[in-house]
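Exercise 7b. Backbone tokens:
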């Protein structure tokens, strides 16, 4: 393993392009206490498919978790990955919250628990003030990245941050000015924004002009959905962090591999386009069902999933039946079973 430091913290698991999944948080059905056994099982299942974990993000209901619960998730996932032979697979932890102070505190706790990287959502509770205050937006990420002991990914998700949508100029300026930032997740779904950011940070000159604090943590541009993975590869993006990775890890990793290979072998483009279409339609359909829908699909496919933490409601039985029967869902389930060698329900 290579060595590196980020503000004094030892980082040995490089951040590399690919597919990441925001892992759901699982709960005991009667008490809503953490179900760490199921978490460990699922993290390893995803890892075997080539998908790397992000804990306590939006899909993981980070906003519903206490500090100690976030720590427990990270520790359990690290043990599970190590015991399964994935010692070099990094863990990203969600650490964004309302204030700069608490966000920094969560970054430090995540690092101490064994996380390798953090992902921080724009603070949106006071969006009426911050939404048009670029100086304050940048100050937030500058201070968090400077004080975090591990590298930080910007999480741009207007739907969960009071509508605040960081523009491409703000993100590229932050990338250049903050060496402990190691990427951005664009759950805004804006392909033009992704293209503009990549035009700066994916240039060979960027890493020499603006070296990272940690050489193992280059600045990655990641989609928040997988429905534009193939076109994003032509803009020199680096993969995706997607909830669909919990349902179809083998499919998405195969799609990512094709998006890389097609640049050297154009004959692979039709297959990449076919698989991209299947993944894009499934992503569109399943994302609308939210956390409860994703968990219900996992219950159907894997035998575990459970409910979200209250006040989030479960998916209604009729709605789930329609989701499961939807051709977009059935198409990706079929591909997933073919790729992981299983045909049983």
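Sequence design result:
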């Amino acid at each position: 393993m290579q060595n590196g430091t980020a503000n004094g913290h030892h980082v040995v698991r490089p951040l590399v392009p690919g597919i990441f999944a925001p892992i759901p948080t699982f709960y005991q059905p009667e008490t809503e206490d953490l179900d760490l056994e199921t978490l460990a099982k699922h993290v390893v299942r995803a890892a075997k498919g080539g998908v790397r974990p992000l804990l306590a993000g939006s899909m993981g209901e980070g906003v519903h978790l206490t500090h100690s619960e976030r720590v427990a998730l990270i520790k359990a996932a690290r043990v599970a990955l190590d015991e399964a032979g994935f010692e070099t697979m990094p863990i990203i932890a969600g650490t964004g919250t309302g204030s700069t102070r608490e966000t920094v505190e969560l970054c430090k706790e995540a690092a101490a628990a064994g996380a390798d990287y953090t992902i921080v959502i724009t603070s949106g509770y006071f969006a009426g003030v911050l939404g048009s205050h670029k100086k304050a937006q940048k100050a937030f990420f500058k201070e968090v990245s400077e004080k975090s002991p591990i590298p930080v990914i910007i999480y741009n998700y207007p739907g969960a941050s009071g509508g605040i949508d960081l523009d491409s100029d703000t993100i590229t300026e932050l990338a250049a000015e903050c060496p402990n930032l190691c990427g951005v997740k664009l759950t805004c779904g804006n392909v033009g924004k992704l293209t503009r950011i990549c035009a700066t940070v994916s240039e060979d000159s960027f890493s020499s002009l603006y070296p990272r604090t940690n050489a193992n943590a280059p600045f990655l541009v990641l989609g928040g959905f997988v429905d534009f993975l193939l076109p994003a590869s032509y803009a020199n993006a680096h993969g995706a962090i997607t909830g669909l990775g919990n349902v179809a890890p083998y499919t998405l990793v195969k799609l990512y591999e094709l998006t890389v290979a097609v640049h050297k072998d154009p004959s692979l483009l039709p297959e990449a386009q076919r698989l991209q279409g299947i993944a894009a339609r499934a992503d569109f359909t399943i994302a609308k069902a939210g956390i409860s829908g994703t968990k219900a699909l996992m219950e159907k496919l894997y035998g575990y999933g459970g409910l979200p933490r209250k006040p989030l409601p479960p998916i209604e039985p009729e709605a789930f039946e329609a989701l499961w029967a939807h051709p977009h869902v059935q198409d990706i389930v079929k591909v997933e079973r073919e790729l992981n060698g299983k045909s049983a329900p």
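Instructor comment: The first strand starts at residue 5 and ends at 6. The mean pLDDT is 95.
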